[in-house]
Design goal:
This protein has 138 residues and is of the alpha/beta class. The protein has a single domain, classed as Hypothetical Protein Ychn, Chain: A. 21% of the residues lie in helices and 23% in strands. It contains three helices and seven strands; from the N terminus they run βαββαβββαβ. It has a five-stranded parallel β-sheet with strand order 6-3-2-1-7. It starts with 8 loop residues before the first strand and ends with a strand.
């Protein structure tokens, strides 16, 4: 997969809260651009990055646009591997039930709707990261 023009595995590691800085929004924009170039794109949500997928986000009063609905469009860009670190959720008192429902349609399974969120342990996430060609952390 190192040849020119071949698909590379890109993983974007999201560690920051969604608002208060531009990191989360800019990372999401780069993710969408990467997918447009037919790369194999996945995302990891660790540390405070798990808040980026939290249900019911509101930016009322902070003067920033709520971009969380954009995550629901990731499946349309063939971005369907969203790894959420279990320990990061637990350390913040969150569970999968606190996260947005993010899905994609699996063309290999008669367009069945499937979840994009993959709950993994810290150890499992490290193994997935080792399989990537490019890691980008924000």
């Amino acid at each position: 997969m190192d040849g020119e023009g071949q698909t590379k595995k890109f993983m974007f590691v999201n560690r920051k809260v969604p608002y208060g800085t531009v990191y989360a929004l800019e990372s999401l924009e780069v993710v969408l651009i990467s997918a447009a170039f037919d790369q194999d794109v996945s995302l990891a949500f660790v540390d405070d990055g798990v808040y980026q997928l939290k249900n019911g986000q509101s930016t009322d009063g902070i003067g920033m646009k709520n971009f969380s609905p954009t995550y629901k469009a990731l499946g349309d860009y063939d971005i369907n591997k969203l790894y959420v670190e279990k320990e990061s959720l637990e350390e913040r008192g969150l569970s999968l039930d606190d996260l947005m429902e993010l899905t994609y349609e699996d063309e290999d399974d008669d367009w069945a709707e499937k979840t994009s969120i993959i709950l993994v342990s810290r150890e499992e996430l490290a193994e997935v990261m080792d399989q990537q060609d490019v890691l980008i952390s924000s």
